[in-house]
C-alpha cells in the first residue's frame, strides 16, 4: 500500500501526497527525526518553512527529506538540462569503397571519414566485391589497409576487416 503504482512511479510525493502513516525525516545536516505520523511530520516541515519530500518508499518506515520543493524542482531541471547538454550520441556512419577505386577517390573518401571521426562518430568502412572479386579477399584487404593509412592518425580499428557476404567490413572509432 505504501508503494507507488506503476503509473505514478516517477511522480514525487510531497506533503499531503504522501500516503504512508509514518515517515522517518532526514534533516539537511543528515540527522534523523522520527518516525513521526504523516500529519505531525507535515506540521514539523511547515514550522521550518520547508516541504516534506518522500525519498524512499521501499524502506520501513518510508524516508522523507525536508526541502524547499520549488528550489528542489529547479535544481533537478538544471541537472537534467546539464546532463542532456553533456550527452553526445555517437552515430554510426558508413563509407563504401570498391576494390578498383582510384587514388584520388580514396583520398576524397578518407577526407570525409576524417570529418566523421572528428565529430566523434563510429565509422563502418565497407568494401563491396562484384562478381568473382569475392574469391580474392586479399585485394579488398589491401584497399582497406591503404584507406586506413590515410586516417590512422585520427582513428583506431575497433573491429578488424571481416568478410560478410559480398562486403568486407571494418569498423573504426576516433582515437581519444
Describe the 3D structure.
The chain is α/β, with parallel strands linked by helices and 176 residues long. The protein folds into 2 domains: 15-85, Roll (Ubiquitin-like (UB roll)), CATH 3.10.20; 92-174, Translation initiation factor 3 (IF-3), C-terminal domain (Translation Initiation Factor IF3). 34% of the residues lie in helices and 31% in strands. The chain has helices at residues 38-48, 69-86, 103-118, 137-151, and strands spanning 22-26, 32-37, 51-56, 63-67, 92-98, 122-128, 155-164, 167-174. It has a 4-stranded mixed sheet with strand order 2-1-4-3. Strands 5-6-8-7 form a 4-stranded mixed sheet, covered by helices on one side. Strand 5 (92-98), helix 3 (103-118) and strand 6 form a beta-alpha-beta unit. The two termini are 50 Å apart. The model is unreliable at 4-8 (pLDDT under 50).
